[in-house]
Design goal:
- By secondary structure, the protein is mainly beta.
- The chain has a single domain, classed as Sandwich (Lipoxygenase-1), CATH 2.60.60.30.
- The protein contains one helix and 14 strands.
Length: about 200
């Protein structure tokens, strides 16, 4: 298990030997806070929470360059890839993931902000155990490097979870956890930009 970060903390994605991580996976997950309901024939059914993970890319001046989300699964430079939309939040582990090839990210991109939005307008007081984690896919066994578990909840329909920032050739992961409102990543561009 990786380093557990608190809101606002950051971690360099440079290994102890000085090499930078190259291929990372951002896993985002959540559970329904609502109790399990009984369905047909008395079968228990967990509440479905449909949240959407997105990656919003900005340049050094805070200008929006690109967005990877359920309607555009790959960035223009091909370096950021969404693995697909989870419509229910069911199951353990990551509900949605983003693959990032750090050396392949376009030079103009200085920050990649990861947000979760609710297209169906479900609010975060209906969500438990929301988290964001960084996995090093360039290392054998793909170890988890860092994890940020969200402790806040509320009537907001979106959350700015974390960001990757580049300074020169070095990348840093930062836990953010800022509430927002919106159905799509375009609705939360301003809040995401304020996290830069």
């Amino acid at each position: 298990m990786g380093l557990s970060l608190q809101k606002g903390q950051s971690l360099s994605l440079t290994k102890q030997n000085g090499e930078s991580l190259t291929n990372v996976r951002l896993g985002l997950g959540w559970d329904a806070a609502a109790p399990v309901k009984k369905g047909f024939f008395g079968m228990k059914k967990a509440a479905e929470i449909d949240l959407d993970a997105s990656a919003i890319m900005f340049d050094a001046q805070g200008k929006h360059l690109d967005t990877v989300f359920f309607n555009q699964l790959t960035s223009k430079d091909g370096a950021v890839r969404h693995t697909g939309d989870n419509l229910t939040g069911a199951g353990d582990g990551d509900d949605e993931t983003m693959m990032v090839n750090l050396p392949g990210v376009a030079p103009a991109v200085q920050s990649i902000v990861f947000v979760i939005t609710s297209y169906s307008q479900q609010t975060f007081d209906m969500v438990d155990n929301a988290f964001c984690r960084v996995i090093d896919d360039s290392a054998p066994g793909s170890p988890e490097v860092a994890r940020y578990s969200l402790s806040e909840s509320g009537k907001n329909t979106a959350m700015v979870m974390s960001k990757l920032s580049r300074t020169g050739g070095t990348w840093t992961f930062q836990a953010i956890g800022t509430p927002a409102n919106g159905r799509t990543p375009g609705d939360v561009l301003g809040v995401a930009a304020s996290a830069l």
